[in-house]
C-alpha cells in the first residue's frame, strides 16, 4: 500500500494551493472530477469550453496571499487586466466599477447621487486597504497555540478598527448616506450578494467594506479559462484526477484512505470537500460528529452557459439588476462574464458566456424529476430573456448553445450542493470552521472554512493552514 505524508482531497482553489506549497513532500492530490479546480474549473461541452463558476480573478497584488503563494511556487499566471471590474446595468442605467476612485465617484454621483457618496465609498476603501495590510491575519482553533495566535489577530483588528467595523452595515449606510433610493440600495446589495453571499441587512461593516471594495483592486481575466490556472499551480504536484476518495479510516497515527481506484496510508489528510459533506467520508464517530456539527448553509448557484456565434466588443463582466426576483432563485440580479475576444480556447468561433445567480440548494433537492426539469428551463429562459433585453448587439439567433446548472448539477460533478460561504459576523465568528480540526493530522481548506469564498478568501485560509501544517513537519 502506498504511504503518504499528506493526502489532499479535492483540487479546488484551497486543495490545489496547499498541495502546490507542499509539493516537495510525499503528497498526492485526489480529485473525483475529470477537470481540476472545482467551482473555479473550466469544462468542455458540445465542443466548446466554459468557466464552471468563478470568472474574475482578484488579489494578484502585493500584500495579498495569492501573489505570495504564486511567487513562492514560482508560478506566473496568464492574465489580462479588466479595465472595468464590473459594469452594472439597472433599468438601463449603467455604472462602471473602475479602480480609479475619482472616476468611480464622478460616475456614481451621476447615477446614484448622494452628497455623502465620497465619505461612504472612501471609508469602505480605507477599511479594505487596512485589512489587507494587517500582518497577523490568522484564525485557527483546537490548540492553545492556535487560540493565542487567533487572539493576537483579533486584538490587532480591534486596535486598528475599534468595534465599529462589527456594527451593522445597514446602519452604516443609514448613518452615512441617509435614506437612499430603492435602486441605490439594490445596487449595493446586488454587489454584496456576489462577494459575501448576502445583503447589507445581515452583515457587519467589515464584510461590506471587503465585499464592495474588490473593484478597487486590479481585476483580471484568466486567459484560456479559469481552469487553466490549475495546470500551472499543480505542475509539480502528484495529481490523481478521476480518483474519488470514498472512505477515510482513522488508525492510531495515520489515516487509511480508500478511493475508487486504490488504498493509501497517510499521516495527514487535508479535506477540500465542504465541511457539510465531509462527515460521510468517515466511520469514526467523533469525526462524524465534528463534521455534522456544522449547520448546512443552504445557499447555492444557478448558472447559465451560452455560446454565441459572434464576437461583439464587450467588457468581461456585467451585473444586471432587475426589479424583481428571478424565478426559483433568491436574487434579483445576475452576473454575466464574457470570454475575451482574443481568448483562443474559450472564444473559438464565438464568445463563451457564464451567467450566475443565487438559489437555495434544498429547493432543487425537494423537486420531483419533472418539476426539476421544468423549473430549470423556466429559470434559464427567464435569465436568457433578460440577458438579451440588456445586450442590444446580441440576438436570440446568435445563441448556438444554451444549458444550465443548479446546485444538484454542482453536486453531481464536484460533490457539493452548497456554493458560497457565510459572511463573517460577530455572531458566527466563533462557530466558524477553522483549518485545524480537533483530530491530529486532519485539516480543512476551502470556502466553507476561514476566511471564506473566492480566490482571496480561500487563499488566506491556505496561508493559515500552511503555517499550521508546517509546524508538524
Ligand atoms: C457560480 C459561481 C461563481 C463564482 N464566481 C467567482 C469569481 O468570479 N471569482 C472568485 O474568486 N470566486 C468566485 N466564486 C467562488 C469560488 O469559485 C469558490 O469560493 C472557490 O472556487 C471554492 O474553492 P474551494 O477550495 O472551496 O474548492 P471547491 O471549488 O469546492 O472544490 C472542491 C473540489 O474537491 C473535489 N472533491 C470533493 N470531494 C471529493 C472526494 N471525496 N474525492 C475527491 N475529490 C473530491 C470536488 O470535485 C472539487 O473539485 C464563484 C462561485 C460560484 C459557485
Structure report:
This protein is an alpha/beta fold. The chain has 3 domains: about 1-80 and about 225-295 and about 425-470, FAD/NAD(P)-binding domain, CATH 3.50.50.60; about 85-215, no CATH class; about 300-415, no CATH class. About 35% of the residues lie in helices and about 20% in strands. The chain has 15 helices and 19 strands. The strands form 4 sheets. Strands 1, 2, 10, 11, 12, 13 and 19 form a 7-stranded mixed sheet that branches. Helix 3 packs antiparallel against helix 4 (about 115-135) and helix 4 crosses helix 8. It is globular, with a radius of gyration of 22 Å. The mean pLDDT is about 95. The structure holds flavin-adenine dinucleotide. Flavin-adenine dinucleotide binds next to helix 1, strand 2, strand 14 and helix 15. This is NAD(P)-binding protein. InterPro entries: CrtISO-like (IPR045892), FAD/NAD-bd_sf (IPR036188).
Topology:
Layout: E1 2-9, H1 13-21, E2 27-31, E3 42-45, E4 48-51, E5 57-58, H2 65-72, E6 79-81, E7 86-90, E8 93-97, H3 101-111, H4 117-133, H5 144-161, H6 169-177, H7 182-196, H8 205-213, E9 219-222, H9 228-233, E10 239-241, E11 245-250, E12 255-259, E13 263-271, H10 285-292, E14 300-308, E15 317-321, E16 333-338, E17 352-359, H11 361-365, H12 369-390, E18 399-405, H13 407-414, H14 426-429, E19 442-444, H15 454-471
Parallel strand pairs: 1-2, 1-13, 2-10, 7-15, 13-19
Antiparallel strand pairs: 3-4, 5-9, 6-9, 7-8, 11-12, 12-13, 14-17, 14-18, 15-16, 16-17
Bound molecules: flavin-adenine dinucleotide.
Flavin-adenine dinucleotide (FAD) binds at residues 9-15, 30-33, 38-40, 53-56, 244-245, 272-273, 301, 303, 356, 414-416, 419, 446-447, 453-455, 458.
Amino acid at each position: 500500500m502506498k504511504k503518504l505524508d499528506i493526502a489532499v482531497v479535492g483540487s479546488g482553489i484551497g486543495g490545489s494551493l496547499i498541495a502546490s506549497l507542499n509539493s516537495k513532500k510525499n503528497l498526492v492530490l485526489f480529485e473525483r472530477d475529470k477537470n481540476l479546480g472545482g467551482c473555479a474549473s473550466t469544462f468542455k461541452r458540445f465542443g466548446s469550453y466554459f468557466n464552471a463558476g468563478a470568472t474574475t480573478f482578484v488579489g494578484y497584488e502585493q500584500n495579498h496571499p495569492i501573489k505570495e503563494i504564486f511567487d513562492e511556487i514560482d508560478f506566473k499566471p496568464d492574465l489580462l487586466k479588466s479595465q472595468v471590474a464590473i459594469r452594472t446595468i439597472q433599468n438601463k442605467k449603467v455604472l462602471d466599477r473602475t479602480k480609479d476612485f475619482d472616476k468611480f465617484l464622478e460616475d456614481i454621483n451621476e447615477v446614484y447621487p448622494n452628497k455623502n457618496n465620497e465619505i461612504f465609498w472612501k471609508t469602505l476603501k480605507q477599511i479594505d486597504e487596512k485589512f489587507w495590510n494587517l500582518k497577523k491575519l490568522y484564525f485557527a482553533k483546537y490548540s492553545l497555540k492556535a487560540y493565542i495566535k487567533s487572539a493576537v489577530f483579533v486584538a490587532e483588528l480591534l486596535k486598528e478598527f475599534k468595534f465599529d467595523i462589527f456594527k451593522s452595515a445597514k446602519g452604516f449606510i443609514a448613518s452615512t448616506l441617509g435614506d437612499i433610493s430603492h435602486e441605490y440600495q439594490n445596487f449595493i446589495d446586488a454587489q454584496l450578494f456576489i462577494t459575501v453571499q448576502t445583503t447589507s441587512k445581515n452583515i457587519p461593516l467589515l464584510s461590506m467594506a471587503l465585499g464592495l471594495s474588490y473593484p478597487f483592486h486590479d481585476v483580471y481575466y484568466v486567459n484560456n479559462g479559469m481552469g487553466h490556472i490549475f495546470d500551472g499551480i499543480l505542475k509539480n504536484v502528484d495529481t490523481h484526477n478521476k480518483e474519488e476518495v470514498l472512505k477515510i479510516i482513522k488508525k492510531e497515527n495515520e489515516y487509511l484512505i480508500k478511493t475508487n481506484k486504490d488504498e493509501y496510508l497517510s499521516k495527514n489528510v487535508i479535506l477540500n470537500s465542504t465541511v457539510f459533506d465531509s462527515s460521510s467520508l468517515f466511520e469514526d464517530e467523533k469525526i462524524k460528529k465534528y463534521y455534522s456539527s456544522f449547520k448546512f448553509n443552504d445557499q447555492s448557484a444557478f448558472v447559465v452557459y451560452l455560446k454565441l456565434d459572434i464576437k461583439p466588443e464587450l467588457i468581461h463582466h456585467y451585473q444586471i439588476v432587475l426589479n424583481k426576483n428571478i424565478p426559483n432563485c433568491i436574487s434579483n440580479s445576475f452576473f454575466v462574464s464574457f470570454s475575451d475576444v482574443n481568448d483562443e480556447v474559450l472564444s473559438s468561433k464565438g464568445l463563451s458566456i457564464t451567467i450566475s445567480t443565487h438559489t437555495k440548494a434544498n429547493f432543487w433537492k425537494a423537486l420531483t424529476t419533472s418539476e426539476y426539469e421544468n423549473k430549470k428551463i423556466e429559470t434559464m429562459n427567464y435569465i436568457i430573456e433578460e440577458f438579451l433585453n440588456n445586450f442590444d448587439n446580441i440576438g436570440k439567433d446568435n445563441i448556438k448553445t444554451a444549458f444550465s446548472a443548479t446546485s444538484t448539477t454542482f453536486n453531481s460533478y464536484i460533490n457539493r450542493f452548497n456554493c458560497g460561504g457565510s459572511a463573517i459576523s460577530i455572531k458566527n465568528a466563533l462557530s466558524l470552521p477553522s483549518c485545524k480540526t480537533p483530530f491530529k493530522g486532519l485539516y480543512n481548506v476551502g470556502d466553507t472554512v476561514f476566511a471564506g469564498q473566492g480566490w482571496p478568501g480561500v487563499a488566506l485560509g491556505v496561508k493559515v493552514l500552511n503555517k499550521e501544517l508546517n509546524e508538524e513537519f
